[in-house]
Amino acid sequence: MSVTRSVVRGTGSYLPARKMNNRDFEGILETSDEWIQQRTGIRNRHIAAEGETTVSMAEAAARRALDAAGLQPGDIDLIVLATATPDNTFPASAVQLQQRLGITHGFAFDLQAVCSGFVYAVTTADLYLKSGMARRALVIGSETFSRILDWEDRSTCVLFGDGAGALVLEVAEGEGTLADRGVLVSHLRSDGTHHEKLYVDGGPSSTGTVGKLRMEGREVFKHAVGMITDVIEDSFSELGIGPNDIDWFVPHQANRRIIDASAKKLGIAPEKVVTTVQDHGNTSAASIPLALDTAVRDGRVKRGDVVVLEAMGGGFTWGAVVVRW
Ligand code: UT7
Questions:
Q1: What is the CATH number of the domain that holds 116?
Q2: pTM over 0.90
């Protein structure tokens, strides 16, 4: 049976030039390089310069993904931009990106699922491509969390960074088997009973302000590993595969301890885990495509590999996507 698949054509990413390491916090907050590394694995994060925004970083990542795919902006007829930090309340940052890329056909929209934004966006684009509504999609995660952090709150401001990552998905015909290239399965979940554990304390309809990020870190941590492993086990059982059948595990990069504990619980070998949290911190929706682009460009992720993406974050939202590269 022939089925439509969404195949990855290329990846790209962008990080602001300004790096901030753990020691840079030591003079301004009661914290230490040792505490941050031990509790999170983070050593560095990148911080957007004045004038650098979610849209400008998305554009840089998108152009690199298009180059890698050997495509022009005009070849794209769908943009799904995952972000919790848009340039404006409206219109969507995705349409501003569309304008910067010179695309005037097709359609573009933002998707808001915080740290799970990228797995939600890949799943959404996959469904549009499978439905025939679009043929080639730019799927992007871009975030400027530095602008919604409370820089006096040591329990949150040391954790996050800015950046963007993108991939190009294109329709292709597959056999409907595990051997097909493209998105093989997705599982998305949310549970709003946890919405106050990780949120921003402002918004257009509540306070009329942008607000700052607030998190009960320990509470998020408590749920993370169970939620992540549940959706991956569901994905594995739907495909009839196990941890030994996958080549790469590319998780949301929030905390090294969460990544390691999830891989261990799932039985995924440590050498299959792509970890970039040490260099980027938590870049929310941008973290998975940033990690993916790193592993594609350094030659780890190759055509034909089975790659598992997963994320968990504010909402709570969580999900997993399995892709054959
Ligand atoms: O991407 C969305 C998903 N988000 C996450 O996955 C984040 C999940 N949570 C975490 O990663 C961890 O919970 C944190 C890294 C945020 C915190 O690690 P923890 O091991 O859960 O520490 P804790 O919150 O239990 O805090 C331990 C202690 C506290 O002091 P007391 O109450 O024990 O005296 C904190 O006040 O560490 C203190 N603390 C700090 N100390 C030095 C909190 N932040 C800092 C800091 N430097 N930056």
A1: 3.40.47.10
A2: yes
